Amino acid sequence: MIKKEWILQKALEQFNERGYSEVGVRELARMLEISPGNLSYHFSKKEDILIALLEQFSARNSSFYEHYLTLSPTNAHFLELMEKIFNSQYEYRGVYIGNQYVRTELQSQDRFDYQSIATKRASTFQKIFQGLDAAGQLRVNGEDIAFLVAHITLFGRFWISEATLFTKFPDKNKTIRHYLFLLAKQLSLFATEQGKKSIEEFSRGMS
User: For residue 137, what is the DSSP state?
Assistant: First the structure.
């Protein structure tokens, strides 16, 4: 029996390898060795597959944020959270929201409320940075927190686009380490001595 999860997994592989706009439904059915009718039984059109993958991606990331909020607030834990998020973005890069074809697709329908998700994520980052300040990991005021939220939002939204600008298949671990290093350097500008030690602890584990 054809499983929806199997279809989604194979579709994501194709979107990652070739790009969302380059993969058609009939072609996907041939690759899966099923009839277009069998595929449409589960997903009536390609956009349905896209929405299902984005929901999967969003739920996965939400679990990472929820887990972080159960931990003691340290810069190392924050960078561990971002490492998980970056890995997730890499694995879903073919349907990631930074993809221009995906953005165009979403703008034409109301089935995935990215604006609400983005607002919720920004609120969560604000809470995270406030917590790091209260724990003595960062020294930040309201303006600093607003800057860090804007920075992490921009950074998180577009790093994968830059990473794949010249090659579709950058080395995953090397690429993620590079962007985590840049993020750690930015964070260190606001870190206390205790917070800098926490960043160094994370960096040692990453190398």
Answer: S
